[in-house]
Amino acid sequence: MTSATRDAAPEALGLLDRQATVAKPGFNRWYVPPAALAIHLCIGMAYGFSVFWLPMSKMLPNADTAACADIGLIDMLFTRSCNWTVPMVTPTFEMFIAMLGVSAALFGGWLEHAGPRKAGFIAALCWGGGLVVGGIGVMFHQLWLLWLGCGFIGGVGQGLGYISPVSTLIKWFPDRRGMATGMAIMGYGGGAMIGAPIAVALMKHFSPYGATESVGWTLMTMGALYFVVMSAGAFGFRVAPTGWKPAGWTAPAKSAKSMITHKDVHLNEAWKTPQFWLVWAVLCLNVTAGIGVISMASPMLQDVFGAKLIGADTAIGLTGAQKAGIVAAAAGLVGLISLFNSLGRFFWATISDYIGRKTTYAVFFIFGMGLYLLLPIFGHSGAAGLFVAAVCVILTMYGGGFSTVPAYLADLFGTQMVGAIHGRILTAWSVAGIVGPSLIAELRQKQLDAGVAHDLVYDGTLHILAGLLLVGLICNLLIFPVADKHHMTDEQLRRERSLQHEEVVKGDAERAARGRFGSAGVLAWAGVGIPFLIGVYIAMQKASALF
User: Fold this and answer.
1) In angstroms, rounded to a whole number, what is the distance separating the alpha carbons of residues 54 and 64?
2) pLDDT tens digits along 294-304
3) Least buried of 88, 218, 252, 546, by fewest C-beta within 10 Å?
4) Other CB atoms closer than 10 Å to residue 75's CB: what's the count?
5) What's 501's DSSP letter?
6) In angstroms, what CA-CA distances link 489 with 98, 484, 496?
7) 487 φ, ψ (degrees, to nearest 5)
8) Rounded-to-integer distance, Cα 291 and Cα 468, Å
9) Which residues, at least 6 apart from 246, have a Cβ–Cβ distance to it below 8 Å?
10) Residues near 77 by Cβ (< 8 Å), separated by ≥ 6?
11) Is the Cβ–Cβ distance between 261 and 406 less than 8 Å?
């Protein structure tokens, strides 16, 4: 091959090709986390979608309530004369969480070969475009179109957007795997802090045009906004050349007891190992317990403490303003949940770099069991402050479970295909996201039907969640390094690297990405940091109603 041919090859690459995203010498690895955050802050609006449920159920002011009372599911999907019920629109959330796991599992292997830029851009098309399609469904009052757009198409965007930065960040930060993934995944936990206030403001802005237009135009506007921001993040990605490492850093020596492997396991082999399924169970059980608290936090606070939240002894004779104060206090807890869910992702993932992933999860399960068992005690004693504090700590560990698992997988299976393996593991989230809330709601309703008092109805449920954490602890303790027989041979590793086109950048490993942070880094971090801090401020304002 001539020199001219070699020089011409890069010009033939498309902007989305993985080879075109190889870092140049002037690049700095600290440019990658804000690109990942830009994507995760957008798809993290998933946690804030509840702001749409009530407005979506009141879009047709002249609907015949009596005629619509017995309407079936099929008719509800296509009716333009009956209001949707809240139970009809809330499955949208379950759909895009389910599709998150399914799409991450299906496309994880493709992502490793296609690269983060292409995956991130397609995620922007699907999440942004899905919201636009959902908005059109609202405008034409077609529930099936809302489910298709926000639920299915948007869910694919959720999955691709969630895993697109993981492998890239781990390879850029071999010295701080947990911290790197924690920074990105923190954005998913904090996306609702930014997105929910924007959605509320947009619905208010469009409200003069009508209730339907208010929701529909808000979804379409946010879809367009998210497409732009996520595309900017996708084009900000760069991949590390093969063999690149931070200046002055040396990989720790391999020891017999080390949980960090120096070899790689192929995606097709990883899921056959017991370690894969144990980590799957660990994530699923941690998420199920945490999402149980998230799904019932607001009603639980009102049921357990009631009038005590505003300093009254009994709920009898409360004024409208006092009742509103109780609701505001519960909403304040929801704001705190978003904040601690987000911050916990960064905190615990960073801590895991020092104490190890297995120890970190052991802390989640042991400490979590204690807190779940203490919550009923705090409730019965009227200690609302301790109750709220315990819930907030639980939510840090819920978020920390998400952000620590990519580094856990990289430790066990190596970094070569960690993004694809992480995609398969996320099916645990899909299962927990569907089973968890429905299980908790059913247990609560059965106890209410049995005549259990409102302030006691959660005791048994919280004990069950503590039991789930005990099972999770056992699964975590059973995780040991992957057997050598599952590791890729040198030939298999060379083939996998050729599929990822890593051979074209092998020679740049020593020179690449040694640039200064500079003004470009400041602007990139400000672009994601300022909105995030505004979201934190808004969450704290809401939480002030608790105090």
Assistant:
1) 18
2) 766 666 666 66
3) 252
4) 13
5) T
6) 35, 10, 11
7) -75, 150
8) 12
9) 29, 173, 174, 175
10) 142, 143, 144, 147
11) no
Question: With contact defined as beta carbons under 8 Å apart, do 457 and 300 qualify?
Answer: no
Spatial contact of 188 and 162, defined as CB atoms under 8 Å apart = yes
Whole-prediction pTM value? 0.88
CA–CA distance, 498 with 42 (Å, rounded to integer): 33
214 Rama class: left (phi>0) / alpha (psi -120 to 50) / beta: alpha
Please give the radius of gyration of the chain, using alpha carbons only, rounded to the nearest integer.
Answer: 24
**CB proximity list for 215: less than 8 A, separation 6 or greater:** 52, 55, 56, 59, 135, 138, 203
Q: What is the mean pLDDT of residues 354-372?
A: 95
Please tell me the distance from the alpha carbon of residue 524 to that of residue 27, in angstroms, as a whole number: 13
Long-range contacts of 195-204 (CB under 8 A, 24+ apart): 195/41, 195/42, 195/44, 195/45, 195/48, 195/222, 196/45, 196/48, 196/51, 197/535, 197/538, 198/222, 198/225, 199/45, 199/48, 199/51, 199/52, 200/51, 203/51, 203/55
Question: pLDDT at position 502, please?
Answer: 62
DSSP state of 59: S
| DSSP collapsed to 3 states, 389-444 | HHHHHHHHHHHHHHHHHHHHHHHHHCCCCHHHHHHHHCHHHHHHHHHHHHHHHHHH
Beta bridge partners of 22: 239
Phi, psi at 239, each rounded to 5° = -100, 150
Sign, CA dihedral 448-450-454-457, equals negative
* pLDDT tens, position by position, 481-526: 999 899 998 888 888 877 776 655 455 677 778 888 999 999 999 9
DSSP calls for 449-484: HTT--TTTTTHHHHHHHHHHHHHHHHHHHT--PPPG
How far, CA to CA in Å, does 17 sit from each of 128, 229, 495, 540? 21, 20, 18, 42
- Residues 397-433: b if buried by 16+ CB within 10 A, e if exposed: bbbbbbbbbbbbbbbbbbbbbbbbbbbbbbbbbbbbb
The Cα–Cα gap between 73 and 294 comes to: 28
Question: What's the rounded Cα separation, in Å, for the pair 242 and 207?
Answer: 53
Cβ 92 vs Cβ 49: under 8 Å: yes
How far apart are the C-alpha atoms of 209 and 213, rounded to whole Å? Answer: 6
Q: pLDDT exceeding 70 applies to what percent of the chain? A: 87
The rounded distance, in Å, linking the Cα atoms of 411 and 258 is 9
